[in-house]
Amino acid sequence: MSRILENSEAPKLPPWLETRYDPRIMIKRLITSVDVARHAGVSQSAVSRAFSSNASISPATRAKVFEAAAALNYRPNRIPAIMLSGRSGMIGVVVGGLSNPFYALALEHLTISLRDAGFQIMLVHVDDALTFDTALDQLASYRVDAVITALAVGTRETARSLTELNIPAICFNSRIIGPGISTILSNNYASGSLAAHIMQEQGVARPVWLAGPTRNAASRERRRGFLEAFSARQGTGKIVTELQGDDTYESGFTAIREYLRQDHRPDGLFCSNDLMACGALDALRDHGVFSCPEDVMVIGYDNIPQGAWHAYQLTTFSQNLAALVEAATEILAKIFSAPAARISQRRVIEADLIVRRSTKRTAPTS
Amino acid sequence: MSRILENSEAPKLPPWLETRYDPRIMIKRLITSVDVARHAGVSQSAVSRAFSSNASISPATRAKVFEAAAALNYRPNRIPAIMLSGRSGMIGVVVGGLSNPFYALALEHLTISLRDAGFQIMLVHVDDALTFDTALDQLASYRVDAVITALAVGTRETARSLTELNIPAICFNSRIIGPGISTILSNNYASGSLAAHIMQEQGVARPVWLAGPTRNAASRERRRGFLEAFSARQGTGKIVTELQGDDTYESGFTAIREYLRQDHRPDGLFCSNDLMACGALDALRDHGVFSCPEDVMVIGYDNIPQGAWHAYQLTTFSQNLAALVEAATEILAKIFSAPAARISQRRVIEADLIVRRSTKRTAPTS
């Protein structure tokens, strides 16, 4: 039984729809094909055909329609085509926190790429006040052709909703699977391993892992790669200290400030994202005793623009947004070429290591 | 004569619409009201009425419909309502560069606020490859109810397009006017004056203004307020040095690095936005001779999260996103309550001064 129908009342309509029968708003706001037909002295169907590239219409009639359309500032209406075909050309894009520059830039890349492929974007923001399932209901009612999300929407319920509603979905860095659900992953485990190997080469003996929220599947994989690479080299003893953050700058700053106050002296710090790494670098600078990279090397993840700022010069993993977005549009193309197939692709995109000052030690310190 | 109709060929259709007559794609992807009606043993019109809060239907029939809908995972289709009412419940939101955290956060606030008011967002990104007018055509074809933009779209052509297409528009920090076009402005001139007064109180004698792109109307007003306040106090002589940036971190860093290399010794710097101010602070730190705030005070604009980071601690003007977005939704309410009125509101929102370390001098230096 679906949520929306759990009580016997009608679903709540948004205000703009509530008033749709109000005669005061039934004014003609936009020029319609009927107006163009009247102005051109042709049938309404001729107007529709004039604006369809594969319909039969004489050049003279088309010219007449275009002239009338220009005079009236008419724009073809896509809504009837959506009704006829059941396809809207709209892709639902579900985002969470845009305060992380990585997600803002990912959205920008995606928006440009989908636009260039001829799609429109219906943007939905999911936060505590709105669950992903509620967002899905809204997107379904507008008949979006597919949903793309960068949220950590790993629940079994979400996968079931997507499958039940039969909306193809593409999820970034998520672990949900199901018919019609594709995932595009950054190679988080391998990146975690590489971070560990870089630190080992530089003689890091007191490594620290600064985690994102535990619900973040990408963070869990980065941790696993980092810890296993240290264990493999050093034996099975636990040598990596684990600190907990929440993916914000503030959490990185606080976690490292507190750790240093307890007189710990880390010499290598791998942060689950760049925002926390910038906070960690500021905590190190404020503390004053340590300096980076001489005493402690720092590695982040995401390659946000701020990591390249002169105050940070952070070594990090670039998630290669162009490749992530290209994979998404390729999967969309597959979805559209075989709409009945319930495409479930899985793509892994290598992250590129961007080396900056934060790991440029001249010699090992231990 | 409109762009779209300048040649005599049919307008190019996006790929998904090109193939709408292809029988292969005419499969039934989503459950329709016809399916629900058949399953419930009622008419299709009964299904529509069951999902409309102000239609007449018996409780028993509605229950039957809801049961069938739940069994089939049906979601009401909003597309027919869009056709009937001419109102889509969609607001077109036109954005430029999301790499500026201010615009990313403004988009987030707007998305949440419009969602809570019952609207959906159609997101369009305008860059060099796509003009605002082309974006407008796309939005018009989807019948968006209004357009909100934070772009500096100050051309007379843009205003004419909006008016011709009869799409109500709300523009942030823009100077375009016209029937149906509303503007919401930050109080840029007053903020520029206040920045000058703060510097004058601290004895700043060699003030510098770091400008954004000249097409940016908000930057021009901030400059005017800053320069006029200095002129009023110091006489008509030009005492403010003007440097040119382009609103990016890099341009702020480069402009100030070059200025310091020429042996200039500014003691007050007002930047048209925070990104440039962060770049300027890093250039000062790298230069090493000066320190902020002892030798030079720095003021930015926008209150991006990075300005509060420990490496910057930037004094800045907060544009009060909550107030800007609230003004936008109030104007939308007016537009919807009187759709024929061509609402043209103008709202000015005071910016709040956020004082941080970058202006906390203990005593005047000159």
Automatic annotation (TrEMBL), chains A, B:
Q: Which residues form the HTH lacI-type domain?
A: 31-85
Q: Do you know which SMART domains this protein is assigned to? A: HTH_LACI
Task: Name the Gene Ontology molecular function terms of this record.
Answer: DNA-binding transcription factor activity; transcription cis-regulatory region binding
Tell me any Pfam family this protein matches: Peripla_BP_1
**Keyword Transcription carried by entry:** yes
- Report keywords, A-Z: DNA-binding, Repressor, Transcription, Transcription regulation
Q: Which Gene3D superfamilies match?
A: 3.40.50.2300, lambda repressor-like DNA-binding domains (1.10.260.40)
**Thylakoid in keyword set:** no
Q: What is this protein called?
A: Transcriptional regulator LacI
